[in-house]
Design a protein that fits this description.
It contains five helices and nine strands, in the order E-H-E-H-E-H-E-E-H-E-E-E-E-H. The longest helix has 18 residues. It has a single domain, classed as Rossmann fold. It is α/β, with parallel strands linked by helices and 181 residues long. Bound molecules: inosinic acid. Inosinic acid (IMP) binds next to strand 5, helix 4 and strand 8.
Length: 181
């Protein structure tokens, strides 16, 4: 285990098994749909979207969006900025937003509304992790990997200051790591 990690919350095998289950669920729900468009929210969802896509049986197209919140003051109002938009016209497409973690839910609430305005045939949300204690926005997660406690986690795509994304597991970061910076 990495020295900056207090403990491992989810082992790689647990994650892999759950991601396969989510893919099976999605495959069943979209049995009549020829092609799904997975929209990954950069950068935290990268490992998740790749593993999910590999486990899906149907045709899958991938696109990515990058967003950033304006900081604490505006986070509460849900004001988010699009840093990199989709390359795909999603009108008439079956879209699944793939997100790493839902915390307050403001990011996803914004994203959902933003993509809904582009008239997709359907729009659902798939998130690997949910910290329900911190929720302030009303978002429905259609496909969820795991509920987790209110701890700051890294690994499997999730970062702190761009580090730890490459850890194969999801672990709780030692508080002294972010206090020490
Ligand atoms: P929300 O808008 O408050 O739901 O924030 C969601 C975003 O915050 C996620 O996409 C992550 O980028 C980031 N985030 C929230 N909690 C964590 C965490 O524990 N580790 C790493 N990133 C997190």
């Amino acid at each position: 285990m990495h020295q900056d990690i207090a403990y491992v919350l989810l082992e790689h095998d647990q994650i892999t098994t759950r991601v396969r289950e989510l893919a099976q669920q999605i495959d069943r729900d979209y049995a009549d749909v020829d092609e799904l468009l997975l929209v990954g929210v950069l950068k935290g969802s990268i490992m998740f979207i790749v593993d999910l896509a590999r486990s899906l049986q149907r045709h899958v197209a991938l696109d990515f969006i990058a967003i950033s919140s304006y900081g604490q003051a505006t986070e509460t109002s849900g004001v988010v900025r699009v840093l990199k938009d989709l390359e795909t016209d999603i009108s008439g497409r079956h879209v699944v937003i793939v997100e790493d973690i839902v915390d307050s839910g403001l990011t996803l609430a914004y994203l959902r509304a933003n993509l809904q305005r582009r008239n997709p045939a359907s729009l659902r949300i798939c998130a690997l992790l949910d910290k329900p204690e911190r929720r302030t926005a009303d978002v429905v997660i259609d496909y969820l990997g795991f509920h987790i406690p209110n701890e700051f986690v890294v690994g499997y795509g999730l970062d702190y200051a761009e580090r730890y994304r490459n850890l194969p597991y999801i672990g709780v970061l030692r508080p002294e790591v972010y206090r020490g910076r």
